[in-house]
Design a protein that fits this description.
With 735 residues, this protein is of the alpha/beta class. The chain has 25 helices and 22 strands. It has an 8-stranded mixed beta sheet. An 8-stranded parallel beta barrel has the order 15-16-17-18-19-20-21-22, surrounded by 5 helices. Strands 3-2-1-6-5-4 form a 6-stranded antiparallel beta sheet. A hairpin with a 2-residue loop joins strand 5 and strand 6.
Amino acid sequence: MIEPLEPQARLDQIVKLIAKHMETEVCSLYVLRADGVLELYATEGLNPGSVHLAQLRLGEGLVGTIAATARPLNLSDAQNHPAFTYLPETGEEVYATFLGVPVLRAGRTLGVLVVQNKAAGRVYPEEESEALETVAMVVAEMIAAGGLEGLSRPGVTLDLTRPVNFSGLALCDGIGIGRVVLHEPRVIVSSLFNEDVETEVSRLVQALAILRESIEDMLARRDVADEGEHRAVLETYRKFAQDRGWVRRLEEAVRNGLTAEAAVEKVQSDMRARMMHLTDPYIRERLHDFDDLANRLLRQLIGQDGVGKDATDAVVVARNMGAAELLDYHRGQIRGLVLEEGAATSHVVIVARALGIPVAGQVKGAVSMSENGDPIVVDGETGDVHLRPPPEVHSLFADKLRFRAERQQRYRSLRDVASRTRDGLSIGLQVNAGLLVDLPQLVESGAGGIGLFRTELQFMVASTMPRAGDQERLYRAVLDSAGERPVTFRTLDVGGDKLLPYLAHGAEENPALGYRAMRLALDRPGLLRTQLRALLKAASGGRLRIMFPMITDVAELKAARGFLQRELEHLDRFGYPRPVDVKVGAMLEVPSLIFQLDPLMQDLDFVSIGSNDLFQFFFAVDRGNANVATRYDDLSAPFLRALRTVVRAGERHKVPVSLCGEMAGRPLSAMALIGLGFRDISMAPPSIGPVKSMLLALDAGALADELRAFLDDPQQAGSARPLLRDFAERHRIPY
């Protein structure tokens, strides 16, 4: 490897040496090109004229199968294998015995290394397969370093620095332009071959001992959350670190000639390549744990502490991460987040949305293809990610980002303008929040208050149950920050897709319809009463608005109010000052409540419609399922009629009705809500400007007349979207 040879000569020497030492008649190297074609780059034994001419696509033939599956093939009669494909230009039809291994780097296939023999019946022993995998790892570093560029015909590229485009899921709106910061940075191993086997084995054993000791220390500490890991994950790490099979494979790789760190990288890459094709979510989560453990061991061997959290213009790229881990980064320096996994309901995505960070999820291969410092663009509107973008793509998104910034500046100029429609109706625009980091946006957006404070986020970013004192301090800080502006606290809404690692829960086939929110809280009165007590103490001497989530029938509301009354009596008994005013509300998210509106309104001070869940239950549609998520429209006549029914019940009983959810944050659907009679809506802070810009130009009375005529027509079952767009364009309303 250190001889001063040209790239092609080096490859030719490698395949010749392998053929000689393994006593095989053929050794060939196929390299995966950017266009998904495996090209023969070097051979000993096949027709030399076929080099750079023989080609196979991914999944085609034995070589293509190895590349597609990232698994070796060891065959005693290759031609009878169903995947065998004959390439006449190579002359390989006379060879029966076959051993092929993938050329892997960070779990990504870069090529295939093959040996073949004429004699049928030979089976290559495991140590020969292991040796070939080790050589393949060395070749992978050559490819990754760009050492093979220019060997093929012009226009063919293998360089890992080429531009790459990914299509993922848009999880949080916005444009992020910056440089890659790998959340779990890949340690670059520069020293591959050992000079003294026993010294390397000793280094490995010592590093493993330190790793195990560090895990035990973390488990012994009470503040496990400071490490960003849940206790169950640490227990898994401990099992991995003690696994004899893993340690044996590491030692075997060292005895085959690798340094300790190269051995860890090889075994890690092999394990990832084997497991990443599995679909079982539990196993894939264990792969995430294994990767983290192997990276810790690598950093221990090399003496690195990992990446700093203070990189500027950072786009964080990760397989997955916890919500608390995102908060470790400096908010002002994060431009975007790219996740290989992740969903709209992932804890980290919820926090990113609160911070206004654009997020793309389900971006498969992003970690393996990225290096720290690579330029990257994240489009949170479409879910597209552009890694190492060409100048014209970078310029396009820079212009798009500039346009968004100018638009936001225009919205900021409206911050102190009263939110009144053109015909004089005052509309309350409030923000949704859930963490202390959200609170500065209350003032910056010019919102009238916090229409929904999600108290569960404090529970979700912690690895142990927040104590009553911690809850009280958070709620008091929120009230102090809001000043005279109203704050509506929603009690704990967990279960379903928002699971707490420290709260026991069983598997459910339909978690959205299962044991969650008030159903769970009423069965665990200690949990609910502790939170209610913390809220009441935090608001002592002031005003408090409490809202109970996912009420399904009036009996649940009465039970929840009973717990609140007991906590008020507790304050009186022990001499704590009460809030001067306590208003009680319920979230209307379950369609059954629409048929209990009169008794419900008699027991409430206000109602807030949770449009996300109500829409999901109304149409029996899973919002997280891409096959059906866009099939139904929240501006359809049936759904708007349901919303109007609630507004009219509120008017009858003089109970204020508001709405919080994605509908409120889109100017066109917010326009529809105002036309239906809503006078208070709550949304994400970035939506305040666009919605206010819309309503300042809106004649609410004229819209209400047109919308009423549309909904009163019993034949109308379609969407009101065309009507609303036409109204907006006729009246020059920005939407």
